[in-house]
Write a structure and sequence with these properties.
Elements lengths: L3 E6 L11 H4 L4 H14 L3 E6 L3 H14 L2 E5 L8 H9 L4 E5 L21 E4 L4 H13 L3
Parallel strand pairs: 1-2, 1-3, 3-4, 4-5
């Protein structure tokens, strides 16, 4: 069984730690990657960690995951609320998909309450800060158990 876990990050997440630290915290994306890598090692998963500010690049990574990944964790940022292309790409992936958000999007502006990813997500984790990534890794590991 494939044990490569894709963690995909959308627009502006490259600025974690700098961008609105009162909402998103002071942890950088590189620190998040390190946390995820440590968790993946403990869960015997290979980590594929990717960030892009471009929708098409995220879609290309989802396409790669179709052949290579045991699961996808996606924090699509603002594209969560706008991208039918990401929805369609995720719909083609047959493994578990966890949608995550660092903030509680339902406690924010109303336009953030609509997700195009949720209808195809296996589960959603929101509002738990960067710990959302670690929790999602545990969830994927549980979902792919033989």
């Amino acid at each position: 069984m494939i044990k490569e876990l894709y963690i995909l990050n959308g627009p502006n997440l490259n600025l974690l730690g700098i961008r609105e630290p009162e909402k998103y915290g002071k942890t950088s994306l590189e620190d998040v990657k390190s946390l995820c890598n440590e968790k993946c090692i403990r869960n015997e998963l290979d980590l594929h960690f990717f960030q892009s500010n471009f929708e098409g690049e995220l879609i290309e990574e989802i396409h790669k995951a179709i052949k290579n990944a045991c699961g996808i964790i996606i924090n699509a940022g603002a594209l969560t609320h706008t991208s039918i292309g990401i929805l369609d790409a995720l719909n083609m992936f047959e493994g578990p998909k966890i949608e995550i958000h660092i903030t509680n999007v339902y406690a924010r502006e109303s336009f953030r309450h609509k997700s195009f990813i949720s209808p195809v997500a296996t589960g959603i984790i929101a509002g738990l800060g960067v710990n959302s990534y670690v929790l999602a890794i545990d969830a994927i590991k549980e979902l792919i158990k033989d």
